[in-house]
Structure formats: C-alpha cells, structure tokens
Design goal:
Blueprint: E1 23-34, E2 37-48, E3 52-56, H1 63-70, E4 78-83, E5 87-90, H2 102-107, H3 115-125, H4 141-153, E6 159-163, H5 171-188, E7 191-195, H6 199-205, E8 208-213, E9 216-222, H7 234-242
Parallel strand pairs: 3-7, 3-8, 5-6, 6-7
Antiparallel strand pairs: 1-2, 1-4, 8-9
The protein binds adenosine-5'-diphosphate and magnesium ion (MG).
The site of magnesium ion has 3 residues, from helix 1.
C-alpha cells in the first residue's frame, strides 16, 4: 500500500513538510487490532529530533499501545514505523526488578562499555548516587521513578517514551521529577514522547501536544511561548474544548 509520505498530522498547514533529516520517528498508517476491536486506526505521526511531545487522550484511547509499538514491543502492529536511534521507555510504575539492586537494574541487558560506570553516572544525575546498592523495594515512589528514568537514560536513547511517569507521585515530588525530566532532556537531547492525562502538565513540559482519539492523532497544537499559565489562556481553552 502506498502511504502518502510526509503528510503532517493535525493542524499543520496543508503541504507543510518536515525536513527529512529532522525526523527521528516516522509512523505511517499504524493500525493495531485486538480481536475485532481497532485501537489504532491508520495513525500518522512524525517526531523530530530533540522534540518534547505530549500525548493526551482518554483512558483506553490507545496511548500505551502506541508507545509499545514505538518501543518495538508489539509485533502485531501493522503499518509503517521507523525510528532512527535507540528507544527507551519509563512507565507509570517504575517496574524495577525487585531482586536486583538499583545499579544492577540499570545495567541489566545494557550492551555498552563500562556498564557499571555508566549506571553510576546516570544514578548521580538523578540524585541517587548513594542508592546504587539499595534494593528497589526500599526506594520511595519518587526515588523509584528517578531510578526508572536513570535506567532509560543509561541507554542513551534518541527517543525517550514516558508512559504517565508522574501520575503515581505526590504533587510535590511530581514537581521535582518534572524539573529532572526537563534537565535530562536539555542535557541529553533525546526526543521525548510523554503520555499524560494532565493538560497542565502537557502545557508546562511539551513543545507540541497531540490528542489521540478514534485511533489517530485527532488534534495537534504547538505550544506558544510564553507558556500558558493563566486558566483563560486561549491554548488551554482550545485544548480543553477538544478533550
Ligand atoms: P491507554 O493507554 O490510552 O489508556 P491502551 O493503549 O492501554 O489505552 O489500551 C487501548 C485499548 O486497547 C483498551 O481498550 C485496551 O483494553 C485494549 N488493549 C490493550 N492491550 C490489549 C491486549 N493485549 N489485549 C486486548 N486488548 C488490549
Ligand atoms: Mg496507558
């Protein structure tokens, strides 16, 4: 099937084309069915290098399904999918292996020179240098989530997929981890695709916001600077109206 290439999704001007070298991830006509249920229905998406994208959508709209496909964890997804570089994922629950110490969770399956040195550097970056030999179950929620981010980071991903990584954190810890994610993003420059159900969080963190609905990217915004902080900001009203 000939899928139209470089057709931008959502609100881009018709005919606008992303320069090919900027595209890190290209998804064309991605379809995922579970039995007779079509969850992703010919979804198109382009993510540029270094871009911070937030993905909103109702519960069950297929956000995690899309992330699994992007991570290469779904062999049954149909359609075109290309990612130029490595992909790492952090989930809502940190999913650390409980019987391996924090550092060993980071080096697990890590094919790089000096894995221990890399792991310790990543732990230091997320403020967990002193927890390298701790057992995962002794970490607080915020610490476990930071360890999970370090585990993603140590793989030096071109694309970092975050599936509701903040939703289990209390409000104050969440602010700290927001800051951390922005710092890591600025320092390492991966493209980030963040799934969240929090509109304010999306507006705070992302350059571009997508809404998944009906198995496709149904709405798309580029967040205008300065960041919308006021609840009557037009971006916020448009976004809320679409949800
Ligand atoms: P979201 O992350 O947006 O909440 P999901 O991607 O987890 O949604 O799920 C989208 C839909 O696909 C849901 O209705 C879910 O029940 C269904 N689904 C996801 N994974 C499976 C699976 N392995 N088998 C059957 N149905 C699934
Ligand atoms: Mg989900």
């Amino acid at each position: 099937v000939d899928v139209p290439v470089d057709v931008p999704v959502g609100a881009h001007a018709p005919g606008a084309v992303q320069p090919a070298e900027a595209a890190l991830a290209t998804v064309r006509g991605l379809t995922r069915r579970f039995g007779d249920r079509t969850v992703l229905d010919g979804l198109d998406l382009t993510i540029s290098r270094g871009e911070f994208v937030a993905l909103l959508g109702r519960s069950g709209s297929g956000k995690s399904t899309l992330l699994r496909a992007l991570a290469g964890l779904d062999e049954e997804a149909e359609g075109g999918l290309e990612v130029d570089g490595s992909v790492a994922v952090a989930f809502q629950e940190p999913r650390l292996v409980p019987w391996k110490r924090v550092r060993d969770n980071l080096t697990l399956g890590l094919a790089a020179p000096d894995p221990t040195g890399r792991a310790d550097a990543a732990l230091a970056e997320v403020g967990l240098a002193d927890r390298a030999r701790a057992w995962p179950l002794t970490l607080s929620g915020g610490e476990a989530q930071r360890a999970s981010l370090a585990r993603a980071l140590v793989r030096d991903p071109g694309l970092l997929l975050l599936d509701e990584p903040f939703s289990a954190l209390d409000a104050l810890t969440r602010i700290t981890v927001h800051r951390l994610v922005l710092d890591l993003w600025a320092a390492h420059g991966p493209a980030v695709l963040l799934v969240t159900h929090d509109v304010d969080e999306a507006l705070l963190l992302a350059d571009r916001i997508l809404v998944l609905d009906g198995g496709r990217v149904a709405h798309e915004w580029t967040v205008t600077a300065p960041r919308p902080r006021h609840r009557d900001h037009p971006d916020l009203l448009t976004l809320r109206a679409a949800l």
